[in-house]
């Protein structure tokens, strides 16, 4: 699981990474100011290729790349 997180964190624009479900899923949060919507699919594909090349694992690993922007305003 540490190796999964290490691979994902090595990519530019990645903010946080979590390997969950005993390493069957990786959730990757990217910085919305650094990564565009078009770049998300490229990052996900590159991470998948690197996992396939560097790790041995049974079954499959789900890779979720999340780009989220929040705006919060307060009325006083």
Find the CATH topology: GMP Synthetase, Chain A, domain 3
Helix content: 25-40%
- Briefly note the structural class of the backbone: alpha+beta
Full CATH superfamily name: K homology (KH) domain
Strand tally is 3
State the shape. elongated
Main beta sheet strand tally, sense and closure: 3 strands, mixed
Poorly predicted regions are none
Element order: H for helix, E for strand: HEEHE
Query: How many individual domains?
Result: 1
Radius of gyration from CA coordinates: 14 Å
Q: In CATH's first tier, which class applies?
A: Alpha Beta
Continuous helix count: 2
Strand order of the largest sheet: 1-2-3
Q: What's the N-to-C terminus distance?
A: 46 Å
Strand content: 25-35%
Chain-averaged pLDDT: 92
Under the CATH scheme, the architecture is 2-Layer Sandwich
Topology (elements, then pairings):
Elements: H1 2-9, E1 14-20, E2 25-30, H2 37-54, E3 62-67
Parallel strand pairs: 2-3
Antiparallel strand pairs: 1-2
Provide a short characterization of the protein structure:
Helix content is 34%, strand content 25%. The protein has helices at 2-9, 37-54; strands at residues 14-20, 25-30, 62-67. The protein starts with a helix and ends in a 9-residue tail after the last strand.
Question: What does this molecule look like?
Answer:
The chain is α+β, with helices and mostly antiparallel strands and 76 residues long. The chain has one domain (2-67): K homology (KH) domain (GMP Synthetase, Chain A, domain 3). The chain contains two helices and three strands, in the order αββαβ. The protein has helices at residues 2-9, 37-54; strands spanning 14-20, 25-30, 62-67. The protein has a three-stranded mixed beta sheet with strand order 1-2-3, covered by helices on one side. The longest helix has 18 residues, at 37-54. The termini are far apart. The mean pLDDT is 92.
């Amino acid at each position: 699981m540490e190796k999964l997180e290490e691979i994902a964190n090595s990519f530019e624009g990645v903010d946080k990474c979590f390997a969950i479900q005993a390493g069957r899923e990786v959730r990757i949060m990217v910085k919305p100011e650094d990564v565009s919507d078009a770049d998300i699919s490229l990052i996900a594909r590159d991470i998948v290729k690197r996992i396939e090349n560097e790790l041995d694992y049974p079954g499959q690993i789900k890779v979720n790349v999340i780009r989220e922007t929040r705006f919060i305003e307060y009325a006083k």
